[in-house]
Amino acid sequence: MSASKIAQLPIIDVAPFLNDNPEDAEKRVAASAALHRACVEYGFFYLNLDAYVERSEPEELARLAKEFFGLPQEEKDKIALKNQDHARGYARLNENVTNGKADAHEGIDFYRPVENPDKSKPLWGENQWPAVPGFKEKYEVWVKKMKVLGTIIMRGMAAGLGLTESETQDLLNQVDESFWVMRVIGYPPLPSGHDGISCGAHKDYGCLTFLWADPTKSALQVFLRQPGAQETDSLGLPREQGEEEGIWINADPIPGCVVCNIGEMWEIWTDGLYKSTLHRVVHRGSNYRVSIPFFFEPNFDAFVRPLPGALRKKALDTAEKSKEGEPERKSVVYGEFLLAKVGNNFAEDGPRDRYSES
Ligand SMILES: O=C(O)CCC(=O)C(=O)O
Ligand SMILES: [Fe+2]
Question: Where is the Fe2OG dioxygenase domain (predicted)?
């Protein structure tokens, strides 16, 4: 298979999902089928949000982010992770680690607020907002919109899998109090001699990631599995993808779109029919890049298990009829899975690896 098999990930318009007009029914079916194909083939796609949000909205968020990242270090450290539960707050440049290597970015993490916060418990503290005027208000509007978008896309994916209404409801019940995460990331230009890997190769561990990024090109890269593809890298970077064969492609920002990728929970729900895909950030530009990933995750107490409807679809798609009903993937309680992933960051010092294999 040639490396040029795909020039760009598919673009799926959310417009038909925003209403239930009968005249849009056909478009909804087509968009759901496109979601299914994109999840089977790439685990990554673009969502066109022009019918849902004004382009100026995330641009304003990026402006606010730059205002914060431009503050003196001691100002930024006022909302440091260690003031809270070591998960919510600001991480300095190189504080996060992926694959044992420091990530060349700084960022602020926010999580779903919890009842009865207790910062002595992992993940159970309070969010820390920058003192930049308008920051909290504008980002809270974005969180609300991304949560609604999460449900919309989950519904579309359920349709793409051919789930029954009660199976769809069962799935939606697992995300209706999403333990979401929002990250605001700043990537400074790197000194010469740096390999450019600003965020090492990883899979997202949750459900759906909606990534808005500023127009910087050639930064986000996605690993496409292609058996037989030898050329794994044109930049002379290490083979971060282990033994798999494939190619790294750029997922450059497209105006009006977010990049969406599926996390490991979707691997469980579909028993591996959908695969969460490796990605990384290689920022070699001379500008300060900002990205804002929103992670739409299952409820903290969701019991995530292979969905009967997805097993049906898998058997159909893979002609493995004989295997129907025998899931290969283990079920997890999402909150337990998450704690195992990030719980080791619940320490005063030491590396903060959010994508470690648990
Ligand atoms: O900044 C980006 O483009 C991607 C960030 C990312 O993959 C993550 O935070 O999980
Ligand atoms: Fe990621």
Answer: 178-298
- What pLDDT digit, counting tens, does each position of 54-97 carry? 999 999 999 999 999 999 999 999 999 999 999 999 999 999 88
Residue 216 has pLDDT above 90, yes or no: yes
Exposed, middle or buried: residue 246 (CB in 10 Å: 0-12, 13-18, 19+)?
buried
Are 202 and 98 spatial neighbours (Cβ–Cβ below 8 Å)?
Answer: yes
Identify the burial level of 136 via C-beta atoms within 10 angstroms of its C-beta, where 0-12 means exposed, 13-18 middle and 19 or more buried: middle
CA of 281 to the centre of ligand 1 (A): 7
Which three-class secondary structure state does DSSP give residue 20?
coil
Strand partners, 182: 110, 294
**Nearest ligand 1 atom, CA 204:** 10
Q: Indicate whether residue 291 lines ligand 1 (CB < 6 A).
A: yes
Q: pLDDT tens, 85-109?
A: 999 999 999 998 888 888 899 999 9
Specify the residue for token string 């294999």. Answer: 357
Tokens standing for 95? 């504080």
Q: Which backbone phi and psi does 221 adopt, to 5 degrees?
A: -125, 145
- Rounded Cα distance, 98 and 356, in Å: 7
CA atoms within 13 A on the CB side of 96: 29
